Amino acid sequence: MRNQSVLSYKMMPSDANNLGFVVPAGRILDIWGDAETEVMILNDGDESLCLGYHDVKFYHDLYLGDQVDFKATMVKIGNTSRTVKLETYKIATQAKRNGRPEADDSEMDLLDPPLLCGEGYSILVVKKNLQRGIQPDGIVADPWEEVEK
Fold it and tell me: What are the residues whose beta carbons fall under 8 Å from the beta carbon of 68, sequence distance 6 or more?
């Protein structure tokens, strides 16, 4: 079963609209929505309907320029409901924010291990008549096959 999606994302100026270039929690929820939608399409062939979130916690701020992974993992499958665990990991951040004030503005520090910045759960629903099962990989073995003929 294809039960996980990871979206890698660089936080852009349009994401960080607060003073200090902090990314608001609502934007994180938006991107979680993209990750959970991908999991649902892979597993059911349908985008689903999100009923809501629970046990959402934010541990660290995200900032403009941060490289972030948004992870969605299917943890429970019901008749029409699906429970997805959502996690946000900061992969890289500006060196100045990471304790190196002498660093250039363009210098980034890779965080090893990645920093868990937020987590939570969502409950999604796919109507029975829209459940089409696990979708194909979408991988084309030879993408040039038709062009070469």
Answer: 8, 9, 10, 11, 62, 88, 89, 90, 91, 117
